[in-house]
Specification:
The chain is an all-alpha fold and 292 residues long. The chain has a domain at 2-133 and 195-246. The chain is 81% helix and 0% strand. The longest helix has 103 residues, at 189-291. The radius of gyration is 42 Å and the shape is rod-shaped. The protein starts with a helix and ends with a helix. 15% of the residues are buried. The model is unreliable at 119-132 and 150-184 (pLDDT under 50).
């Protein structure tokens, strides 16, 4: 028991040493994952800008059609980015778990049964792309750009009449389809294209920021929980061994006392047996003397 207790003390010291060493490897794996993810994000960002520019090449294209295509394009890109990042960081979870498992393997081999019985399992959980992920809002973006341009046109022409916003009538099914009785307004597609490009840039910046923050938060929590739970398992095991040792020491004193009592009993029994033999011999001697 003393040997096992000392071995666990050494394992706790080794765990602290490995914790400092493994932090560098964990950091390296995270840097690789984030670098790869940011590279993929930049590729998607550049591809989106090229595709958006292609959508605005035809000035005669109805705005409603352009908006529909933009919504489809951005939604597809958003789904692609989220799906790719989910797969990347599921793989990162497995990699980090493997790194931590390698750290505790020398210790686990020494106390494998006890750790298995305690139910300890290393693991990371990244809450990435759930709830706080930014999203493209193409419909709102179109409405804001059109409203801003409408306000600019009103100031430049200094008209005193109140006009309906573009967002109200651009959604009509017959908009721009030869209704000659309806007033016609024009939208500067270059302004709209620049606004969409800025929205793509902002989205990618937010994704990169959210990504780094959530990974840092998840890894920090995972590392702290991992080493705290593992150290707790070893400490609990050490405590049980100390209790067993204390109980055995208490029992040893009782057993030692019983052994002493048993030895005294055996000695007393020997003395009684010897005295009985001597007494028997004396009685036989007396009977023999009386006969003669």
């Amino acid at each position: 028991l003393r040997q096992n207790i000392h071995q666990i003390e050494e394992s706790l010291q080794l765990l602290q040493l490995n914790q400092a060493q493994v932090s560098g490897e964990i950091k390296h794996e995270i840097e690789l994952a984030l670098t790869s993810a940011n590279h993929f994000l930049r590729q998607q960002q550049d591809a989106l800008k090229v595709q958006l520019a292609a959508l605005f090449q035809d000035d005669s294209e109805p705005l409603s059609e352009i908006r529909t295509r933009c919504e489809t394009l951005l939604q597809t890109a958003q789904n692609t980015i989220s799906r790719d990042f989910t797969l990347r960081f599921a793989e990162l979870e497995s990699t980090l778990c493997r790194v931590l498992t390698d750290v505790i393997r020398p210790i686990e081999q020494q106390v494998k049964m006890e750790l298995s019985e305690s139910g300890f399992r290393p693991g990371f959980h990244f809450p990435v792309f759930h709830g706080v992920v930014p999203h493209f809002n193409t419909r709102q973006l179109f409405s804001e750009v059109i409203s801003r341009q409408e306000a600019t046109d009103e100031q430049s022409t200094r008209l005193g009449v109140v006009r309906e916003t573009f967002s109200r009538w651009l959604n009509q099914p017959d908009w721009g389809r030869g209704n000659e009785k309806s007033p016609t307004e024009t939208v500067d597609y270059s302004v709209l294209q620049r606004a969409l490009s800025a929205e793509v840039d902002l989205y990618c910046q937010q994704m990169a920021k959210v990504l780094a923050e959530q990974v840092d938060e998840s890894v920090t929590a995972g590392m702290n929980t991992f080493f705290a739970e593992f150290a707790s398992c070893l400490t609990e095991l050490q405590t049980r061994l100390r209790e067993s040792l204390a109980l055995r020491q208490q029992n040893e004193s009782v057993v030692r006392l019983m052994q002493q009592q048993l030895q005294q009993t055996v000695m007393t029994h020997g003395w009684i047996y010897t005295d009985a033999q001597l007494l028997r011999d004396d009685i036989q001697t007396l009977f023999t003397a009386e006969r003669y």
